[in-house]
Amino acid sequence: MPNPTLSDVHINAPLTNISEAHIQDASKFVSMRAFPVVPVSKKSDSFFQYDKGDFLRAEAQARAPGTESAGSGFRLSTSTYTCNVLALHKDIDDQIRANADAPLSMDSDATRYLVQQMLIKQDKDWAADHFKTSVWGTDSADKWDSTNDAVDSIDSAADTVEAATGFRPNKLILTPSAFRVLKNNTKVLDRIRYTQTGVVTEGLLASLLGLDEVMVARGVENTAIEGATATVTRLFTGDSGLLVYSPNSPSLMSPSAGYTFTWAGYTGSGSAGQRVSRFRMDHLRSDRIEAEMAYDQKLVASALGVFFSDVTTA
C-alpha cells in the first residue's frame, strides 16, 4: 500500500503551525567531515599519490663552487575511485496532494525525507568500511575510563602517526558512548576544571587535545521493515574512536586519511554529488520526487589513522 494514505494527510481541525517529523540534524552525520569532499567531473577515474618516503628524505647536499647541485625527485603512483549512484524516490499521488491540509508541504516534505535517507546510508556505509579494526595503520587497545590518562593516550597516538608520516592527526570521531567515557575521564575533568564553562563539549575537547575537530557520530536508523514496530539503533556502535589526519580543504598535494569523491559532473549535481529531481509520472497520476547521490568514500592513507577499538575496561 502506498504511504501516506488519504487519511494520513487529512485530519480534523488541524493546527496549521504544528507538524511532527523525525528529521535528524545533519551535524549528527560525520563521514563527509572525516573524509573531506573532492568534487570530480567523471564517475570514475584515477588520481596521483606521492611517495611518502621520498618527501621525508633529506637529500640536500653541500655545493662546491662551480659544481651542479645535487639532484633528487619523487615517485608517483596512481589509485582509482568510482562514484556509485544511489537513488531513492517518493511518489506524491494527485489525490493525496489535493486532500492534504495546510501544514503539509508535500514536495518539501518528500525532499527532506529523501535527503535524510541519503545521509543515513552514507554514514552507515562509512562506518561499516572504515570505523573498525584492521583498516588503519594502528589499532589501539588503550582505555579511557576511570583514572586512565585518556589525554596522554590520544596524544601518544597522534605522536605515533606524526613520527611515521610527518602529519599530526587533527580529527577525532567518537561513538556517543566513547564520547561519554572521554568527557568523564578524571584526567580530562582535572584539565578543564577551571575553564570558563566547566562543561566538556566537543569543541572544548578538541581544544584540550590540540585537534581541529571532535565529532560525535549521533546518527540513528530504524532497522525494522515498513509497518513493523520501529527498532532504532545507532549507526556507530560500541565504545570506539578514530583519530585521523584529513585536511579541512583538500588540495592537489595534501595527504589525507581518506577523501569523499563526489561526482559533481553528474547532470544537475552540485559539489556534493547530490541532486533532487521532480518529474511527472502520468500513468500513476503522481509526481515523483527522486534523490540521487554519487560518491566514493575512499581510504587513501591508512598510516594517517589510529582506531581505538574499545575504550572501556571490561
Rounded radius of gyration (Å): 24 Å
Strand content: 25-35%
Order of helices and strands: HHEEHEEHHEHEHHHEEEEEEEE
Q: Report the top-level CATH class.
A: Alpha Beta
Shape: flat
The number of helical elements comes to: 9
**Straight-line distance between termini:** 47 Å
Mean pLDDT, all residues: 87
The largest sheet is: 5 strands, mixed
**Helix content estimate:** 25-40%
Low-confidence stretches are 15-19
Q: So, the CATH homologous superfamily?
A: phage-related protein like domain
By secondary-structure content and strand pairing, the structural class works out as: alpha+beta
Number of strands: 14
- Would you identify the CATH architecture? Alpha-Beta Complex
What number of domains? Answer: 1
Classify the fold: give the CATH topology: phage-related protein like fold
Overview features:
single chain, alpha+beta, 9 helices, 314 residues, five-stranded mixed sheet, phage-related protein like fold
Summarize the structure.
The protein is an alpha+beta fold and 314 residues long. The chain is 26% helix and 26% strand. The protein is built from nine helices and 14 strands.
